[in-house]
Amino acid sequence: MVPYGNLLLLAFTLFLMGAVCAVARRNLLMILIGVEIMLNAAGMAFVGASLKWQLLDGQAFVLFIFAVAASEVAIGLALIVYSRRRTGSVDADHYNLMKG
Amino acid sequence: MKSYLFLLLLFPFAGGLILAVVGRYLPRRIAEWIACSSVLGSLLMAILAFGAAGGKRYLLTLLEWIRVGDFSASMSVYYDPLAAIMALMVTFVSSLIHLYSVSFMRNDRDYVRYFSYMNLFVFSMLVIILADNLVFLYLGWEGVGFCSYILIGFWYSDVVNATAGRKAFILTRIGDVALGVAIALFFLLLDQFSIFAINAKAPSLSVGTATLLGLLLFWGAVGKSAQLPLVVWLPDAMAGPTPVSALIHAATMVTAGAYLLMRLFPIIALSPTTLLTIATVAAFTGLFSALAALGQKDIKRILAYSTISQVSYMFLGVGAGDVAAGMYHLLSHAFFKALLFLGAGCIIQALHEEHDIFKMGNLRRRLPVVFWLFLAGALSLAAIPPFGGFFSKDRILLSTFSHPEPIYKVLALIGEIGAVITVLYTFRMFFVAFLDRPSVPEGFEKKDLKIPKFMGWVNLPLAILALLAATLNLPGSFGGNEWLAHYMASLPGGVPPYSAPSGLEWMMEIGSGLLNIGLLVVAYLLYRPPIRERLHKLLFSGFYLDRLYQIALVEPYQKLAKVFWLNIDEGVVDNRFDAAGNTFRSFSFGLQRWTTGRLSTYLKMLFLGFTAIVSALALGWYYLR
User: Which of A23, A97, A99 sits opposite B600 (nearest CB)?
Assistant: First the structure.
């Protein structure tokens, strides 16, 4: 059996990669993918915890995360498509209407 | 009875309200009609109430007003012979003045504002007269002050008028504070606002307390009635339209102070100190303002100073403990002074806003109606026997003289000197303005002196009353029956405390009568040639009292205000606030740089912040476990 520490390490790495992807990339699609990876990393940590303590709560939580991720992708993609149509760009830096 | 008094107050209030709200949309005739008929209705109600009461007293609550715990103030009225006579006088004089105003204001476009404030003034004045509850009275007291302020500055586009209005407002406020304190003290000491109950409980007060209350009331009355040292606002108040001066600053409002003291006489009478203070201040005010009137050129200012002087005789009557005498003089003064002012209004309008009596002359031929009316007023004011003011002024001086304290003899003498000067200044004004003079200014004869006939004739009732005012209370020695004194006998102070021997009464009446007639001749001889320059200047400026106040009070105050403004307000308060504001400003400029508008920056910040929070929580959990 894989020790829980290793699993957490993997989840942490995955989360960090997702976060870096979300922050560093300028493409909206890549940011969305980064967010997805982060969600899945969190899900992995939950599954591992569920195994370690033999409780089903962690797995139930993962189901919720799937639902959130799916709906997020659905709405996020729709927004990206719409934004691209409006501005002709998927570069995040072009969206600077919020600049103070 | 209740409905009479209720309507008495309601008519002018409703008139003022209607005019203020919809007056602009009404035709001029209808607006004027509303204004006059509301006051005439009030007069009718005053007559009916007078008839129905028949000398009895009524204590009625018209409306509930405020009720919080122990504190309750209702709109209640206390109708006694004093209030009855005063209400009759005020509604009568103001009815005539409203009618007169219709003519006087015929070319003024702001007639709606004028009439609505006039009606409101009549209402407030009637509140003062009738109110039983002191808080209700204070409402009227401030109401007349406000209307007076508005109407003095009626032609507000001229800065001088607006300033005069402000001056009157501020100076009367100095007195009003004392009245407010007195009202609060009454509640504190007696748990009462009701004048009736206060007068009934008055003997339970100690002399010291009564002195304090009396002096506070007197100080309030001094402000309203323009006695020393707060005289300076009244001459300036002549900036308003002349009917306003006649109604507010001669016949009614300025007598409110004297009336207040008569109304609360049991409190005043408890303390000999208060009475002596009142009498002393009154005597000196009378002399002072009579002298000042002697030096004025402006016809309205002469009348203003003479008003101050005449009101001081009413105070002298109160100070001598003879309320009936004060009231007698108040009535005759109201008639002849309103008459003189309205006459002056006719002259001023006929001469195209000319106020200087030395630029008038020959008016006897040019304005014959006004001449006769003015003569009636002048005879009464100068107390030439047997007209108007003669008996009332004499009764006051007699009461003062027969007071057992020796100091009152001196005060009576000062009052008599003031009365003598009254003859001089009255007929100086009269002779200079009306008689033929060789040195009439050029072009004067060609001026067109047209005024509406109505403006003259409306004064006729006033002239008759001014001349016949003596019959209200003709002393027994002249075959009269002292009607007013009998009517008021049931009131506190209605009967003079010290009766004079009839020999003294005769002597004084004949003496002062002859003196006054003699001085009338002197005035005639004196006021043909120009008077001496220096004395004239001193008297003209009202003994430089204005100037003294300017130097002693206004200028230090202005300097202090400037120090506060530049060094404290701007130097300390404003600068501190500016510094604080600048700190926040630079802080937010720093923060502004973070708002790049880039999504990735926000995300970075989000992660950093989140990481910091989670790390802190983890560390805390680790170490505190």
Answer: A23
